[in-house]
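Quick question, first post here. What does this chain look like in 3D?
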Amino acid sequence: MESGEWCVVLNDPIIAQAKIVQRDGVNVIYSFKREDMSASKLIHQLSEKYRIRDLEVQDQPIEDVIRKIYEEQSLYN
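> Answer (accepted):
Ran it through. Tokens below.
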């Protein structure tokens, strides 16, 4: 942080329809289902409540998506 700035670590930066999957100090990683919420809606809700200094949006790795599809198919067979 720069001189003269201060930081507040939020105990529960909760956003409806998004799940906190990792937290490291002021860094919070959320997971959400696209059918429930868009990334822009999540960012909008966060920015209304909190000051955002840096932001990164990542898609789930394709390997995880494929694995989930196969796991779901095996449950139905």
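The radius of gyration is 16 Å.
The first helix runs from residue 39 to 49.
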